[in-house]
Structure formats: C-alpha cells, structure tokens
Amino acid sequence: MNPLPEDMENTLTGSQSSHASVRDVHSINPTQLMARIESYEGREKKGISDVRRTFCLFVTFDLLFVTLLWIIELNVNGGIENTLEKEVVQYDYYSSYFDIFLLAVFRFKVLILAYAVCRLRHWWAIALTTAVTSAFLLAKVILSKLFSQGAFGYVLPIISFILAWIETWFLDFKVLPQEAEEENRLLIVQDASERAALIPGGLSDGQFYSPPESEAGGK
C-alpha cells in the first residue's frame, strides 16, 4: 500500500487535534472552573500580588540600606551630631552625602505611592525615578569631590545607582509580566466557565460517538 501524501497526513493530524481540543473544552468540570475563578478572585481581593509585595519590600530595603550607610558615614567622619550639622545645615553639593539620602527617599515615596497605593501597571513611575537617580548621581560623581573623602565617596553613589536599576529590572521583567499573565489566565477561565454554563449538564467524552451503522447500510 502506498503511503499517504504529506498533505493528507497533516490534514488528518490537524483534524484529530481539533477534535481532541473540542473534547477537552466540553469535558471541563464546571466545579473545577468555579474553584479556579474563586482562587483568582481571592488573589484580587488581597489587593496586591505577591510579586508586587516583594517589589515594595525591595524598595523599602533600598531606603533603609542607603540610610544605614549614610548614618555610618556620619559616625565615621567625626560623630553624628557634628557631621549631620555640616552635611544638612551647612549643605554643600560638592561634599555632602545628604542629597544621596534624599534621592533614596524620593525613590521610596514615588514607587510606593505609584505601585503600592495607586497600584499602577505601567513603567513610567520607575522610569522617572531611575532617570532622575542616574542623572543626579552621574552629575554628582563628575562635579563633586566625593572620591577624596574615603571609601564612602565610592560606596554610596554606586550602591544607589545599582539599587535603582535593580528595581527597574524587577518591575519590568517580573512584576508587570507576571501580573498580566495572571490576568489573562483569569479571563480565559471565566470565558470557559461562561461557555460551560450554556451547556446544560455539560458534555462528557461519552457524548462524542459515531452512530452505529444501520442494518441496511451494513448489508
């Protein structure tokens, strides 16, 4: 027997796969669909997704870590009170680290307000904070005299720069795509449940059968 042509084989394969997909759709248990919908709705009721909560925690870590480094720098350079007065009250752009601390506060307020309070699903807020941070730190490193003040002249600008870009990467490649994927799954499950509700009693695999040949046709 001659083998079937490739086009005919592809047609038969596609037909079988389409029948299998139809069978899968109609054999969905409505109870399982409702359970999935309730689980997705439960996530929505929590108000904030797990990955977004992790992002907000990292933003908080950013502020606390920069604050800790700044306090250590104040203590190392002659005591907290004296150095604090010198860097805050007698602020000098070319030698003070106070503006780097304020930059961390700026990132914290904008990102928490945008992604925790307002729950934005866009990257414009993180783009703003990262652009401002990068531009300010580059200008400060070029124009200031931080490198002549010891190790903290290197550590604070570099740490602030790295943390800002880690936040951008985490939001753009983790938070927003994962939340969009979960939302699409919810829409798919809801659509399948609506279709299943239109079918009284649902359909099972046993309802897909070929009618038996009649006696007249068999003879």
Automatic annotation (TrEMBL):
<feature type="transmembrane region" description="Helical">
    <location>
        <begin position="149"/>
        <end position="166"/>
    </location>
</feature>
<feature type="transmembrane region" description="Helical">
    <location>
        <begin position="96"/>
        <end position="116"/>
    </location>
</feature>
<feature type="transmembrane region" description="Helical">
    <location>
        <begin position="123"/>
        <end position="143"/>
    </location>
</feature>
<comment type="similarity">
    <text>Belongs to the STARD3 family.</text>
</comment>
<keyword id="KW-0472">Membrane</keyword>
<feature type="region of interest" description="Disordered">
    <location>
        <begin position="1"/>
        <end position="23"/>
    </location>
</feature>
<dbReference type="InterPro" id="IPR051869">
    <property type="entry name" value="STARD3"/>
</dbReference>
<feature type="domain" description="MENTAL">
    <location>
        <begin position="48"/>
        <end position="218"/>
    </location>
</feature>
<keyword id="KW-1133">Transmembrane helix</keyword>
<feature type="compositionally biased region" description="Polar residues">
    <location>
        <begin position="10"/>
        <end position="20"/>
    </location>
</feature>
<dbReference type="Pfam" id="PF10457">
    <property type="entry name" value="MENTAL"/>
</dbReference>
<keyword id="KW-0812">Transmembrane</keyword>
<dbReference type="InterPro" id="IPR019498">
    <property type="entry name" value="MENTAL"/>
</dbReference>
<feature type="transmembrane region" description="Helical">
    <location>
        <begin position="55"/>
        <end position="76"/>
    </location>
</feature>
<dbReference type="GO" id="GO:0031902">
    <property type="term" value="C:late endosome membrane"/>
</dbReference>
<protein>
    <submittedName>
        <fullName>STARD3 N-terminal like</fullName>
    </submittedName>
</protein>
